[in-house]
Amino acid sequence: xxxxxxxxxxxxxxxxxxxxxxxxxxxxxxxxxxxxxxxxxxxxxxxxxxxxxxxxxxxxxxxxxxxxxxxxxxxxxxxxxxxxxxxxxxxxxxxxxxxxxxxxxxxxxxxxxxxxxxxxxxxxxxxxxxxxxxxxxxxxxxxxxxxxxxxxxxxxxxxxxxxxxxxxxxxxxxxxxxxxxxxxxxxxxxxxxxxxxxxxxxxxxxxxxxxxxxxxxxxxxxxxxxxxxxxxxxxxxxxxxxxxxxxxxxxxxxxxxxxxxxxxxxxxxxxxxxxxxxxxxxxxxxxxxxxxxxxxxxxxxxxxxxxxxxxxxxxxxxxxxxxxxxxxxxxxxxxxxxxxxxxxxxxxxxxxxxxxxxxxxxxxxxxxxxxxxxxxxxxxxxxxxxxxxxxxxxxxxxxxxxxxxxxxxxxxxxxxx
Length: 417
Ligand code: NAD
What we know:
By secondary structure, this protein is α/β, with parallel strands linked by helices. It has two domains: 9-192 and 388-415, Aldehyde Dehydrogenase, Chain A, domain 1 (3-Layer(aba) Sandwich), CATH 3.40.605; 197-380, Aldehyde Dehydrogenase, Chain A, domain 2, CATH 3.40.309. Helices cover 39% and strands 19% of the residues. The protein is built from 14 helices and 16 strands. It has a seven-stranded mixed sheet, sandwiched between helices. Strands 5-4-3-6-7-15 form a six-stranded mixed sheet, with helices on both faces. Strands 1-2-16 form a three-stranded antiparallel sheet. Strand 1 (67-68) and strand 2 form a beta hairpin. Helix 8 packs across helix 9. Nicotinamide-adenine-dinucleotide binds next to helix 6 and helix 7.
């Protein structure tokens, strides 16, 4: 930044936020048509993109090093510096949100970014680059390279000119990306999948919980990393919860993105096929409710609520990435915890209870990067650090924490006697 307050990244990022806000409807329409998500959900993503630009624009001049008391005769301080060129490989389910949280933070720290959007949905990445140019981002600071994962994505992950890789996607691809990046010994952030539980105790406020329980399973047709695909419920509340969730499922409206209903189609025939494959594995499990899908064209998967799913069943263990939720009853807090923590993943968990001590115990013991108490997702807050443990990945994006990940720390020790 110059002495007159001009220059630097922050005015450009905040200006970019203004440009995104001025085009919310256009961006929402592009995303809805590209991804198939209902228009209102796509518009929320566009608002989130604007918020990320505003947040990281505002944060860019508030990240600083420290002075460290040390031996006599020394002055020691730390500097936060950009990595250099950062690679961003993103999936198709929430392109705008993920661009905002990863590219926004990387630009704020002074990196130049190369963004590889998913082959299924790259329109808003290109639109964002166009807006960034208008906001005054210098040429080369943001480069969007659409292409196939195995070609463009792999080339980016293993490129010797990249100093940091941010990957959001599946476990298998994340592992490949980390291996490619390891050849150049560069840091990698992996934001992967989940099998996230919401744990409902017998003292829960069920009226408050119900919208969260269902929405967290069907939002974006379940194609959400933090989808709550497991609902653990105390046995005393089991039948009531199942029946009330089933009522909501029966009322869900499924249809094209532009009809802006509750649930849209899956992104592709392939994703629809994956969900159908899982539903075939449901075998003799009880289907508590299934929403109707429209007749005619469209890759729809019926929102499906399964009851009494054994905790070790594939449908309670594997990420489906479709609108399918498994209800799993439990008898005690210990059992609830064991089931909640009993998958390879650790992204998000929700706890519904009025008991304050239990809230604190569960928050500490749950195996996940985020715990939500008496809510789920906290409105998606751009301010809140986000990421996983276990097979859900490592590193954190969102909030101030991302700014540390997208920069490197230098220690300067000056001896002056
Ligand atoms: P994916 O891993 O198939 O693809 C993600 C990205 O990686 C795409 O851009 C793709 O082109 C690219 N890619 C594919 N093969 C590659 C390779 N060999 N080298 C480099 N890049 C390659 O994932 P997907 O099916 O698009 O997305 C779904 C997954 O993403 C789910 O598991 C979901 O949970 C996860 N996800 C996680 C988060 C999170 O924040 N934790 C957010 C959204 C999605």
